[in-house]
């Protein structure tokens, strides 16, 4: 075969490969369009919720899809909005923010290795949450789930995150990497089935978002053209989605945004793809295809990097329901009652004139009305104008208005007490506490969904650290008593399959302080002599926000942490004790390691035992020498 034949054959292979990539890209785009069309009715409901929440409440979903403005029946009709949905949702969000659980990891058993693994996992979660601003991420997801019914977390590994650890041969910085948790609005998520109730039941999932052409070039090195995107509510960013919901109503021009639709299709592992599949398309170009990147499953398998959080679950439905859905009919009725009542009051205050035809200048009377001191000239022999008796406001208006206000409270699950207004009939402290407990019970379904979502996110965070963190990861933590400590940990120690996630009790700081005072009064925090230990004292001060008062005096935690670091270091090499060590604490920690299951599972057990025993003997010698010196110093005049 000549060189020309080889070149021609190579060009044919490249051409056939490029044709296959284009065909694959078209297939993914068509799949996306089908899913978008199937989900269009659900999107209209989300837009309607966003309109009502923001105060644009004279709109509805049209039979053809989309949200349209409702026309007035008469030009003089009052169409003011008395928005009760927004404060109700604000109260629910603030309550959920206060009661949302905090993640912690419980040891699988009372073995020293399991206890240390649980502490390490809890520390890693705290470290990651502080670094990535996880609290703000959860708050944004709660807003999405309360408004549209569902919100999503996307957990990924950012190779350019974390600290800079080196520089490559070309002079580019190399970073240690960091986990990334972002909020994904429901407008950007397209499941292959709308009747699946969880992400785990899906075979594939599409994440579509609008990005710029510069982002595509920087991320994938491909050049694509931007296009004008009109009425594309499916993948706008959060602020744009809300703006579109408010402006694209009643024939007004929807915002036009130029960009590129970036489509990421994730496929669950199957016989054809044992490690799953991720395919990325933008501008009809296949930018990437390969295995699912993260080993984030329960048994180390690769699953979707998404976690769903619902406001209210629905049977046989992927997207949850929002409390706004239930409040919209009540809000419509309330607006109608208040507006008709105001029209009645205006009619009674302004008056309705009855005028005999031809008796007065009707145009002048229409323009000026009956001004005080006005001289009204009417035709001789005619009937003078007179006011029409409209009667008083019917009592049914007030009854209906009061009942609708009660319905708001009943449907939203937020009582008047949560909105800073004490019920007039409730005066006892026990009654007020009962109302608060009822509020928490009504929110228990939503709180349960948040707790499950946070646990799932925590597991994926630990699994990503286990996969990418390496053998010597530096971590700065605030340990017990708010002491800042620096750790080096091995990612292999994060065995998340044996860890059990706990969510701390969702109680307010005021309730926590009251409970601590009751425990102290009952004598449960003191010993037999009525004295409180230094550890309990520090914990109580920390709970009341004064932990720094006693932290500087207690350095035992620092010695224990140093002994733990020596345990890790002695697995590789010998370590010499320091003269300033608290030898009693060091001896206890090193002996605890020799009695743990982690030591029993070690490969070179005898060598480790000799190394640790020799180190403990050094501590004992130094401790004995210190005791002798202290006795001699005490006997010196």
Question: What brief labels describe this structure?
Answer:
637 residues, alpha+beta, six-stranded antiparallel beta sheet, three-stranded antiparallel beta sheet, 19 helices, 19 strands
Blueprint of the fold:
Elements: H1 3-38, H2 40-54, E1 59-61, E2 67-69, H3 85-99, E3 103-106, H4 112-132, H5 134-148, E4 150-158, E5 164-167, E6 173-175, E7 178-184, E8 189-191, E9 204-211, H6 213-220, E10 227-230, H7 238-247, E11 256-267, E12 277-282, E13 285-290, E14 306-310, H8 323-350, E15 353-354, H9 362-368, E16 386-387, H10 395-412, H11 429-442, H12 444-468, E17 473-478, E18 484-489, E19 500-503, H13 509-521, H14 534-543, H15 548-551, H16 556-569, H17 583-594, H18 597-600, H19 605-635
Helix pairs in contact: 2-7, 3-5, 8-10, 16-17, 17-19
Q: Explain this structure to me?
A:
The protein is 47% helix and 15% strand. It is α+β, with helices and mostly antiparallel strands and 637 residues long. Among the domains are: 12-70 and 149-320, no CATH class; 471-635, no CATH class. Helix 2 packs across helix 7, helix 8 (323-350) runs antiparallel to helix 10 and helix 17 packs antiparallel against helix 19. The longest helix has 36 residues, at 3-38. The chain starts with a helix and ends with a helix. Residues 233-254 and 549-553 have low confidence and may be disordered.
Task: Report the sheet-strand fraction.
Answer: 15-25%
Mean pLDDT: 78
- Total DSSP E strands: 19
**Helix proportion:** 40-55%
| Poorly predicted sequence stretches spanning 5 or more consecutive residues | 233-254, 549-553
Give the N-terminus to C-terminus distance in angstroms: 104 Å
Class by helix and strand content?
alpha+beta
Described by strand count, sense and barrel closure, the largest sheet is: 6 strands, antiparallel
Coarse shape: flat
How many H/I helices? 19
């Amino acid at each position: 075969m000549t060189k020309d034949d080889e070149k021609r054959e190579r060009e044919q292979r490249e051409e056939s490969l490029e044709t296959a990539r284009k065909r694959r890209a078209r297939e993914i785009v068509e799949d996306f369009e089908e899913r978008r069309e199937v989900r269009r009715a659900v999107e209209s409901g989300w837009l309607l919720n966003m309109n009502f929440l923001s105060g644009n409440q004279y709109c509805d979903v049209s039979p053809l899809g989309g949200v349209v403005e409702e026309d007035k029946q008469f030009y003089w009709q009052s169409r003011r909005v008395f928005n009760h949905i927004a404060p109700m949702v604000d109260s629910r969000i603030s309550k959920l923010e206060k009661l949302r659980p905090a993640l912690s990891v419980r040891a699988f058993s009372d073995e020293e290795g399991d206890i240390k693994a649980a502490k390490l996992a809890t520390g890693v979660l705290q470290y990651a949450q502080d670094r990535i601003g996880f609290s703000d991420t959860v708050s944004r997801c709660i807003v999405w789930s309360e408004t549209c019914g569902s919100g999503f977390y996307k957990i990924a590994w950012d190779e350019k995150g974390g600290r800079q650890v080196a520089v490559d041969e070309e002079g580019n910085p190399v970073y240690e990497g960091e986990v990334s948790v972002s909020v994904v609005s429901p407008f950007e998520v397209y499941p292959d089935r709308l009747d699946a109730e969880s992400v785990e039941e899906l075979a594939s999932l599409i994440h579509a978002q609008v990005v710029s052409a510069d982002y595509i070039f920087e991320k994938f090195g491909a050049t694509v053209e931007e296009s004008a995107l009109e009425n594309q509510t499916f993948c706008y960013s959060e602020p744009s989605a809300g703006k579109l919901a408010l402006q694209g109503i009643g024939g007004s021009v929807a915002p036009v945004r130029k960009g590129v639709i970036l489509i990421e299709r994730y496929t669950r592992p199957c016989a054809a793809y044992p490690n799953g599949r991720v395919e990325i398309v933008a501008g009809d170009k296949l930018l990437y295809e390969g295995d699912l990147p993260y080993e984030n499953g329960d048994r180390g398998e690769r699953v979707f990097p998404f976690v769903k959080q619902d406001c209210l679950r629905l049977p046989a439905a992927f997207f949850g329901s929002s409390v706004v859905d239930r409040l919209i009919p009540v809000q419509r009725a309330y607006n109608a009652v208040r507006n008709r009542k105001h029209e009645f009051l205006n009619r009674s205050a302004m008056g309705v004139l009855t005028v005999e035809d031809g008796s007065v200048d009707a145009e002048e009377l229409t323009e000026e009305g009956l001004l005080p001191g006005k001289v009204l000239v009417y035709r001789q022999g005619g009937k003078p104008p007179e006011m029409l008796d409209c009667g008083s406001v019917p009592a049914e208006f007030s009854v209906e208005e009061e009942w609708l206000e009660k319905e708001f409270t009943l449907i939203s699950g937020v009582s008047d007490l949560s909105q800073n207004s004490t019920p007039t009939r409730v005066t006892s402290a026990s009654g007020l506490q009962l109302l608060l407990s009822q509020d928490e019970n009504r929110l228990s379904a939503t709180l349960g969904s948040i707790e499950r979502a946070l646990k799932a996110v925590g597991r994926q965070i630990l699994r990503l650290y286990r996969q990418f963190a390496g053998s010597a990861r530096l971590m700065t933590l605030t340990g017990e008593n708010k002491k800042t400590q620096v750790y080096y940990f091995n990612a292999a120690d994060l065995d998340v399959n044996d860890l059990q996630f706990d969510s701390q009790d969702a109680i307010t700081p005021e309730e926590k302080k009251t409970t601590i005072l009751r425990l102290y009064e009952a004598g449960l925090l003191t010993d037999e002599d009525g004295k409180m230990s230094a550890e309990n004292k520090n914990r109580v001060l920390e709970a009341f926000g004064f932990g720094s008062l006693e932290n500087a005096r207690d350095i035992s935690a620092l010695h224990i942490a140093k002994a733990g670091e020596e345990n890790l270091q002695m697995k590789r090499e010998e370590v010499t004790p320091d003269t300033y060590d608290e030898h009693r604490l060091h001896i206890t920690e090193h002996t605890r390691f020799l009695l743990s299951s982690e030591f029993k599972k070690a490969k070179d057990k005898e060598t480790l035992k000799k190394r640790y025993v020799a180190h403990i003997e050094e501590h004992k010698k130094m401790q004995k020498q210190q005791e002798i010196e202290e006795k001699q110093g005490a006997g010196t005049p």
